[in-house]
Amino acid sequence: MSDLTCGFIGLGLIGGSIARALKEHFPNTKIIAYDINPETLRQADRDGVVDVTAPCVDETFSECDYLFLCAPVQKNDDNLAAVKRVIGPRCLLTDVGSVKSTIHKAVREAGLEHCFVGGHPMAGSERTGYVNSRTALLENAYYILTPTPSVPEKRLEEYRSLVSRLGAIPLVLEWERHDYVTAAVSHLPHVIAASLVNLVRDSDSRDGIMKLIAAGGFKDITRIASSSAAMWQQICLTNTENIASLLQDYIDALCAVRSRLEQSDAEALYALFDSARVYRDSFINASSGPIKRSFSFYVDIADKSGALAHIVSLLADQGISIKNIGITHNRESEDGVLRLELYREKDLDTSIAILRTAGYTLHVRS
Questions:
Q1: Lower CB density within 10 Å: C or N end of the chain?
Q2: What is the pLDDT of residues 262-291, one digit of tens each?
Q3: What CA dihedral angle connects 346, 350, 353 and 359, to 10 degrees?
Q4: CA 182, CA 203: separation in Å to the nearest integer?
């Protein structure tokens, strides 16, 4: 692939991570970027991620081979008018939004369907902004492409090849199917997690005993509730029909569970948990997916001075960076007293081998 010029309008977590991946895999790529936060552009320039910073969406972007719309959904739609004035004839326009209906409609109204392929890297983090961007965010993550009918097949293939070489897994879908699928496996789970956290908050006693013991499994299954409130507000307002439909299905399912509980229907309750276990265990154990997999494991350690430092040192000596460390007090729902979360999937097996060789007892969840 020849040298590329890629433009970014918005340089947050996803835009920054794609730009970093381009620089790593294609070092001669020229990156042009605009962001409403000048400090973001200055930091990206200092990091060597961005080569040219633009004061707005102007002629600076006219030389781009790829132009990524990475601002919030409503801003991306607004930016299309400016993009139409400056986009070059060979440029492929794309976005990174998790809802595709609004951007496809806006692209059609702007007369840009001939050069647009929607993009959704199904990777993310509870931490937002360019400062948290990293190349590894895209590794083994599904990257859904939603082309318009008028985009040449050759351009789509070129983009699919680019995504693959960035370490992601390209998957081509119609935008309508994309929005329904992501509503089920990404958008609805965020609604459920937020609602469950608020239920515990509202049900807790004054001494906060629920909050105290929620540091175990409950904290893990509601991890995504820590995501950006503004982003999820916009997702709910743009993929409303799909989320509402699936939410009603979920409400009906919960009502059925309540009925089984009230009837003490042992057989039905067993079937509920067993069928969920079988289906869940069939999932691919990889980082791909809309809710990013946590690369974590648990370690039994003695409660004595230097125990934690020894583990950290063993991993640091092998160049392994730890993303998060937590002490698990709720041993009823979790194995292991120490929880370690890593940045990269490839460091997981190495870390486990290092600590087991050193005599530690580990607990790894799928």
A1: C
A2: 999 999 999 999 999 999 888 765 445 555
A3: -130
A4: 30
Rounded to 10°, the helix 240-262/188-203 angle is 50
39 and 99 in contact (C-beta within 8 Å)?
Answer: no
pTM: 0.77
Over the stretch 209-247, which tens digit does the pLDDT of each residue have? 998 888 667 877 888 888 888 888 989 999 999 999 999
At 322 the three-state DSSP class reads strand
Amino acid at 258: R
More confident residue, 293 or 176: 176
Taking CA 231 as the corner, what is the angle to CA 226 and CA 237, rounded to the nearest 5 degrees?
Answer: 125
Pairing of the two strands 295-300 and 338-342: antiparallel
Alpha-helical (H) ranges within 135-265 are 153-165, 175-182, 188-203, 209-213, 217-221, 229-238, 240-262
Residues 6+ apart with CB under 8 A from 85: none
The amino acid at 18: I
Alpha-carbon distance of 147 to 210, in angstroms, equals 47
Cα-based angle 228, 232, 238 (whole degrees, multiple of 5): 150
The Cα 340–Cα 364 span in angstroms is 11
One-letter amino acid at 365 equals R
Helix or strand holding residue 33 (H, E): strand 30-34
